[in-house]
């Protein structure tokens, strides 16, 4: 690439392995390099970052969101030369160790166009005011650890610094948040449009106080500590809310640890007319609630519900949740993304195939009774691009009968289903424009009978043919009658 | 192709296996096998993930335990230890690790909570609560009872339950008398008393 496009300015990678060597090549080969976004990547260390810092004179954006970086030392930040002032966006929230704080302060204050700053947990709260004062033009801030010994001077310093950021619209971070420090952000709540409190383990009353001041809020990510009561207040206070994500504080606990039920989501669907994107983890749901939500919010475009216990029925009637999700797809005519959970039969897939005409992405787990379910989806959802399925009794029939559909989609993932190795081979042989990849940790699939189900199947269309860089437990089913093992 | 055709796959071009062979259908059994397969499968260290909600199997450390395929459970009491399913709930490992780090870093103060008559004890982390009201509400939720409001003079009057705790000296104290921070550092265990015993504690004697 370095040879072919020396003027390359932006590289954005997701879920890829990136080496320090690659980062060094990027740093030295592209003279006008401006944007590096590594989302959920891994394989590099802070040495690679040092190369970027030292060489990319025109860098505007360095975003390492949720990557796994081997953090050797915080020294790399000092490798930005003193003459470097073009930084506009920096996200180092995933780094484990402390960065050189003095270097960070100097960097932040000499870059007048810095709009986004996402710190890592190791940046102590008492250093935040200095950073903010160095960048009063900030629009997006991710704090470091939001805790400190409770001292009035630290608090007032912080509150003053926040108040000085008149353009600040987005807040995140809040690790280890201490409730008594939350009021420091009250002065700017009324200007916030996006708030990510999903790492703040504070209780409902403190969350409510904060959220109720954010009248312009469009996006809220929060832990289920907010509870139904908090969501009711949210519904009453934040009329501009477009996106809500509620994450579980205790996902592996056996019993509910918080009073968050389907009611919270119903309240928000009633009170927030612009709500169109939902991700909600909870422990109980009913068809009635889903019906209400669907009728309240026909403008919903992304609806992802995770009922924590697999195959949970409607807790009121003990029936499957087919009708509830059916109502969602029927009323929300612009629904593009849907994730199902709870007890579901083939009927829900019939609804989805009938009504989900704009649906682009569907996630399914522990649902359905037979191949009919999968067939409904593949034959009915005209705009389906991505389908991911785990632990469902879907097998060969529906897959092979709808093989042509797979060429119109971006990808299909099936794991722990009933798709046989034989069917995968047939699919691979019949559809040369698809990569049919079988993943099996227990050894080559041809060491077992053809009727044996495969662990994981990943099918996607390709113009480049099979990959050649796969690890040993991935096999491509293709034209060659012998399996090609990379 | 409609549903009826599915059942007549032989009518289509696509066949399974060699001509003349048939494939047995044993969906039910396969489902069972599948479930246990999914949980005993060692985690793949790749970045393709089954469910996008928020998951990455790469760092999933929950593997190895058997899946509990418990949709036939009609018992009233939940099993004391439920098996974990690999990759479920679909939470990104970044988030899982982060929350785990937080609870470890904070060094939670876990105390046992017993309730008279309950078959087993619970454990809670006192650090999670900001004060007495949150703690009491959590206890109410956990044990499905009403404790009500504390008053210095009358304790938890009106309730059949009184929350008590054993302090560092080994004495059983009524929850609520001392400042919250003092309580958190001196509480060794909690006990929710019931019945006339409780009323004895609740009333000004």
UniProtKB/TrEMBL annotation, chain A:
<dbReference type="Pfam" id="PF13516">
    <property type="entry name" value="LRR_6"/>
</dbReference>
<dbReference type="InterPro" id="IPR032675">
    <property type="entry name" value="LRR_dom_sf"/>
</dbReference>
<dbReference type="InterPro" id="IPR006553">
    <property type="entry name" value="Leu-rich_rpt_Cys-con_subtyp"/>
</dbReference>
<dbReference type="InterPro" id="IPR001611">
    <property type="entry name" value="Leu-rich_rpt"/>
</dbReference>
<protein>
    <submittedName>
        <fullName>GPI-anchored mannoprotein</fullName>
    </submittedName>
</protein>
Automatic annotation (TrEMBL), chain B:
<dbReference type="InterPro" id="IPR003311">
    <property type="entry name" value="AUX_IAA"/>
</dbReference>
<comment type="similarity">
    <text>Belongs to the Aux/IAA family.</text>
</comment>
<dbReference type="InterPro" id="IPR053793">
    <property type="entry name" value="PB1-like"/>
</dbReference>
<protein>
    <recommendedName>
        <fullName>Auxin-induced protein</fullName>
    </recommendedName>
</protein>
<keyword id="KW-0678">Repressor</keyword>
<comment type="function">
    <text>Aux/IAA proteins are short-lived transcriptional factors that function as repressors of early auxin response genes at low auxin concentrations. Repression is thought to result from the interaction with auxin response factors (ARFs), proteins that bind to the auxin-responsive promoter element (AuxRE). Formation of heterodimers with ARF proteins may alter their ability to modulate early auxin response genes expression.</text>
</comment>
<dbReference type="InterPro" id="IPR033389">
    <property type="entry name" value="AUX/IAA_dom"/>
</dbReference>
<comment type="subunit">
    <text>Homodimers and heterodimers.</text>
</comment>
<feature type="region of interest" description="Disordered">
    <location>
        <begin position="32"/>
        <end position="87"/>
    </location>
</feature>
<keyword id="KW-0539">Nucleus</keyword>
<keyword id="KW-0804">Transcription</keyword>
<keyword id="KW-0927">Auxin signaling pathway</keyword>
<keyword id="KW-0805">Transcription regulation</keyword>
<dbReference type="Pfam" id="PF02309">
    <property type="entry name" value="AUX_IAA"/>
</dbReference>
<feature type="compositionally biased region" description="Polar residues">
    <location>
        <begin position="36"/>
        <end position="59"/>
    </location>
</feature>
<feature type="domain" description="PB1">
    <location>
        <begin position="108"/>
        <end position="195"/>
    </location>
</feature>
